[in-house]
Amino acid sequence: MKKTLCLLALCISFSAIAQASDVNILQKSLKPWQPLAINEKNNIVIVNMNEGEVTSDVYLAVIRSGVCVPAWDKKNASYLKNTKEVRILNKHNYMGYVLENPRSTCDDVGTAVGDNATNSIILSHTHMNMNH
């Protein structure tokens, strides 16, 4: 029984480290946009931008040049692997965009050629977020 509890505790701590590393990677990758906060809960990453409104241009730039870039580095094989969504929200945590299945979407974006193709891939896996 003690071995099982120790193993369970060890697995939980490794899981927490893995989740924290996604947030750490995103903090570095999104630094040029100076987000107010980046948090993860229940396999959903929430990025609060320092803007009253997140426009589609800002969203596409953040995903294409910030969220997805670390996924293309082989050393980040577990990055966003268990993440269901990445929410890019305004500073009030109210409105913005949600990228679904971010790891597979970023993998597809990495193989696409041209801005139109990458934008189409991102937008086909995006929905609006409006907290009520």
Which shape, going by the Cα principal axes?
A: globular
Q: Which band does the percent of strand residues land in?
A: 15-25%
Helix-and-strand structural type: alpha+beta
Strand runs, count: 5
Rounded to an integer in angstroms, the radius of gyration calculated over CA atoms is: 16 Å
What integer is the average pLDDT? 87
The major beta sheet can be summarized as: 5 strands, mixed
Keyword list:
alpha+beta, 4 helices, globular, 5 strands
Tell me briefly what this model is.
With 132 residues, the chain is of the alpha+beta class.
Structure commentary:
The chain is of the alpha+beta class and about 130 residues long. About 45% of the residues lie in helices and about 20% in strands. It contains 4 helices and 5 strands; from the N terminus they run αββαββααβ. Strands 1-2-3-4-5 form a 5-stranded mixed beta sheet. A hairpin with a 2-residue loop joins strand 1 (about 35-40) and strand 2. Mean pLDDT is about 85; it is low at about 5-20.
Write the layout of secondary structure elements.
Elements (H helix, E strand, L loop, with lengths): L1 H28 L7 E5 L2 E5 L7 H12 L17 E5 L5 E6 L1 H10 L3 H10 L1 E5 L2
Parallel strand pairs: 2-3
Antiparallel strand pairs: 1-2, 3-4, 4-5
Helix pairs in contact: 3-4
